[in-house]
Amino acid sequence: MRKYLFAIVVSVLAIVAVGCSADDNDATNDKNKEEEAETITVEHELDTTEVEKNPEKVVVFDFGSLDTLAKLDIEVAGLPQATIPEYLAELGYDSDDYENVGSLKEPDFEKIAEIDPDLIIISGRQGDLYDQLEELAPTIFLGVDNDNYMDSFESNVQVIGEIFDKEAEVEEELDRMKETIAEVNEEVEAANKDGLIILANDDKISAYGPGSRFGLIHDVFGVPAVDEGIEVATHGQNVSFEYVVEEDPDLLYVIDRGAAIGEGESAAELIVENKLMERTKAMKNDDIYYLNPDFWYLSGGGLISVEEMVHEIEDSIK
C-alpha cells in the first residue's frame, strides 16, 4: 500500500514539474518573442520607419553613418566598396569580411536581397532609390542638413545610439566634440582671418559659402566668409581664379574632387597653386589648406569624420 501511495505521489510531482517546466518555457519564449519584436519608430526625411532594436544584419550606404558604427563597435553586413574612403578601408571595410553592395549611386539590389538585411541606412546619394530599398528591408535616411549641420549630425548619431543601445557612448562622444568645437571657435575669433572654400574639379573650381555643403567651416567652426554672397547650392558657385584673387581670402580651403573619387592627381599640382594665385595672401602666407576629401566629399556626418574635420580646421588656424 505504501509503495502504491509513493508511486502516486511521485507521479503527481512529476506532472507538476512538467507543468512548471512548460510554464517556464512558455514564459521564456514569450520573453524572447517580446525582445525579438522590440522596435523603435524612426522619423526621418523620407518617411517614418519601424526599426528592430539591435538589428543583426545592417547594410550601410552612408559612409558617415558607417564611421559612427565603427566608432561604436557595431558590426555591419554590407556596404558599397566601389569608392570607399581610405580611412574606412584602413579599418578593414574593403575586405571580404563584408558584402559589397555596389556603389553609392548604383546599389546591387540582388546582393542586398541575398543578405536579407534587418536595416538599411542611406543618405542623399540614394534618396531617389528609397522606395526600392524599403521593399527589401526597413530603410532610414540619415543624411545631414547643410542648413543645420550639427543638429542633424547629432540627431543622426543619436538615432544610431538608440537603435543599438549605445545612447551613453553617443552622448559622451558628442559632449567631447562640442568642447573641441567651442575651443576652435575661440581660436578662430582670436585669429581674425576670413576664409574661402573651393572645390577643385579637373581644371574648374567652384566656391562654397555659409549654408552650403561645406559651409560648416563658416556656420559651425566660425571662420568668417570672405564673400557672404556666394550662391548657396549643393554644387557650389562656378568661379575663376581671378575671382579668388579679387576676394583675396586669408585662408583658402581646397577640396579635391578628383582625389576623392580616384581620378587625377592632387589639385595643388594641377590647378590651384598657379602664377595668378601667387598674388593672394593665402598663397603668400602658406595658408592654402587641402582638406581630406574622404571626410569632406565622400563621407562626413559621422563620429570619426566630423571629429577629423574639426581638427583640420583647428590646425589651419594655429
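Next protein, fold it too.
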Amino acid sequence: MIVEHLSESLFMAEHDIISFALSSPHRYKVYEIAKRNSKKTRTIAHPSKELKFIQRTLAEFLTGILPVHEAAFAYQKGVGIKENAKKHSNSKYLLKMDFKNFFPSITPSLFFSVAESNGIVFDKDDRLALTGLLFWKAKDKDGLVLSIGAPTSPLISNFVMHSFDKAISVICFNKKITYTRYADDITFSTRIKNSLFEFPELISNLLNETVKGIRVNTDKTIFTSKAHNRHVTGVTLTNEGGLSIGRERKRLISSMIHKSMFNILTNDEASTLLGFISYATHIEPEFLERMTKKYGAEVLQNIKLKAAGS
C-alpha cells in the first residue's frame, strides 16, 4: 500500500524506494536550538532535501489513513494556540502538564503498536519503508526515534497519541472536565473544585496502557485557578472568559511602537515588532484598533515599511 503509492507518485521502482528508506535514518542535518525560557537546548534533525520531498508525499497520503483526535490542536488546519486556549476560557480551575522528550520518545515499535490497535496493518515492505522514512538515528539513542524537523513527525505524533486522547476525553466528558492537547502540552479545565487533583496519577497510568514509553514531565505539572494568572499555550485566560496576550507583552509592543516613532528600531527589530503585532491581533482582534488609536495609522504603516527594509 505505502510502497506502491510512493512508487506511483514519485515514479520510482518499489525496490529503489525501500533501498532509499533503509539509508534514510542517516539523511539528517542535526543542530541545537535554545528552548523557550530555558538554558537547555532542543535537538533538531532536519531531513535532506530528497528525504523531505518523499516525506511530504508520504504525509499527504497518510493523512487519509491515520486518525487524529479532535482534542489535538497542534499541526491541524484551521485551529491553533488560540482555539486551544479558548476551550478553557470559561473554566475556574486549570491543570497543565507536558510530556518529557515527546518526539524522541516515539519509536517505530510504538507507532506500529498504535496502528495495530486502530486496525491498521502494514505488510513487511511497508513496515520497512515507514520505519526508514519516518524515523531517524540519533547518536544518543539505541534505536530509531521520531525527529523534530521532519514534515511527517507532526502527523505521526498526533496519530500515536490518538488512543490516549480518545480514552482521556471519555473520562473527562464523564467528569465535566475539558481536555485538549497541543503537541506535548496537555490541559485540563473545569468549574468543579478539587476534581483535577487525581489526574496526574491517572494520566501516568493511562499513558502506560495506551502509549507505553511516553512519560509526563512532572517538573512542569501546574495547578492554578482564577485567583492566579492562567496561561494556556502562551495565551492568557482572563477572568471574564476572554483571551489576552498578557500585560507584559502589551507593554513591550507599546514600547517598541513608541521607539519606532523616533526611528530607533533597526529593520530586524521592526520585523520582530510586526510579528508581535500580528500575533497580538490574532489573539485580541481589538488590540490593533487600540494601537492605531493611540499611535496613529501612519506610525504602524512606517513600521511595515521599516520591516521591509524601505
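About the second fold: DSSP finds 13 helices and eleven strands in the chain.
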